[in-house]
Amino acid sequence: MQIDHFDLRTFDLNLLIAFDALMRERSVTRAAERLKIRQPAMSHSLSLLRTLFQDELFVRVGTVMQPTVRALALAEPVEQALGMMQKVIHVTSVFEPSTDQRIFRMGFSSEVELLLMPELALRMRQLAPGVKLHGRPVQRGDVYRMLDDRVLDLAIGCFDSQAMRYRQQFLFEQSLSCVFHPDRMAFKSAISLENYLSVPHALVSLSESLHGCLESALDEIGRKLNVVATSSEFLSVLGMVASAPVIATLPTRMARRYGKAFGLQIVPVPLTLNLPDVSLIWTAQEDNNPASQWLRGEIGSILSEAVTNTASLKEGKLLT
Predict the structure, then answer these.
(1) Any idea where the domains of the chain sit in the sequence?
(2) 89-103, 113-127, 200-214, 222-236: which range is least confident on average?
(3) Which is the CATH superfamily of the domain at 103-174+277-303?
(4) How far does the chain reach from its first CA to its final CA, in angstroms?
(5) Would you say 151 and 282 are in contact if contact means Cβ atoms under 8 Å apart?
(6) Residue 287: which of 147, 160, 151 has the closest Cα?
(7) Number of C-beta neighbours around residue 41 at 10 A
(8) Contact (CB, 8 A) for 15 and 48
(9) Could you check whether 103-174+277-303 and 176-268 share the same CATH topology?
């Protein structure tokens, strides 16, 4: 239905409320009481209604205001229109995980997808069996456009909100650990700075740089690693370290989650490297969406776990 907004703008829609009150009460006085206004104001509204519709609308018969034929014809559509408006005003969006069927589309940077998706998929099967998850890697330069275009519902990773139209939730601070296979390396425990800088290194890189996401952190302290192999996948790097005499620097949570399965030793990195925090980003349009709020709560719950274990590595404790 095509709506002429200018035509409606010239009509005071509050008059329809006055009309409906008069239809129900058949009295100017009682209609005024119903709307909690003074009787002169209600009389003024009736006068305007008569002018606009070119009809008396209500005629006094004894002590009652009886509707005209025109008023009776208007009564039902006006009541329906006001009823629909009342529903619109008071409607509340509800998300019921157990019965909802939708696709949540999420963008990830770095290792967060591997940390989150296994547990999130389990929770979806348990709590929201009709919900589907679509995860994909995204770059910093693309993530905000994809959120604006509704290609993504939210993004998780090393992102900073850039404008007021985005919302951001801190998830956790990143820390790094060094992993190696004890049967492939001469050292068996904590790695020295000399060995760390000289031993062949395998890293995750999503760019043309061999140092990947560590490049800026290493540049800050004026250090370089002896990088001999890179991969865009964390599991590929873990596989290299398990098979070859190389070491890798990985996010601590990733090292702890998957290092043991590859038989790797996990030790603190003998350097202080500053990395951006991991955050959850979404648009202001999604801020009060109950489905988005629920999903953000589940993600926050999953990624907030094991904080104390990560802290133990920062303190220099050796894990195998």
Answers:
(1) 5-90, 103-174+277-303, 176-268
(2) 200-214
(3) Periplasmic binding protein-like II (3.40.190.10)
(4) 67
(5) no
(6) 147
(7) 12
(8) yes
(9) yes
Residue type, 73: A
Q: Is 138 helix (H, G, I), strand (E, B) or coil?
A: coil
In what helix (H) or strand (E) does residue 188 lie, and over which residues does it extend? none
Length of the chain counted residue by residue = 320
Q: DSSP for 257-285? A: HHTGGGT-EEEE-SS----PPEEEEEEGG
Residue 317 has pLDDT above 60, yes or no: no
Contact criterion met (CB below 8 Å) for 284 and 239: no
| Total-model pTM | 0.68
- What does the pLDDT look like over 123-150, one tens digit per residue? 999 999 999 999 998 888 889 999 999 9
Determine the Cα–Cα distance for residues 206 and 176; give it in Å rounded to an integer: 18
Residue linked to tokens 């591997």: 114
**Which two structure tokens, joined as six digits, stand for 298?**
């589940």
CB 102 within 8 A of CB 96: no
For domain 176-268, give the CATH superfamily: Periplasmic binding protein-like II (3.40.190.10)
Question: What SS3 state is found at 207?
Answer: coil
Among residues 257, 261, 256, 234, which one has the least CA distance to residue 248?
A: 234
Tokens at residue 198, please? 């000289």
Structure tokens at 15: 């008059």
The CATH number given to 5-90 is 1.10.10.10
CB atoms < 10 A from the CB of 211, how many?
20
Q: pLDDT (tens digit, 9 = 90+) per residue, 215-268?
A: 777 888 888 889 999 988 888 999 999 999 999 999 888 899 899 899 999 999
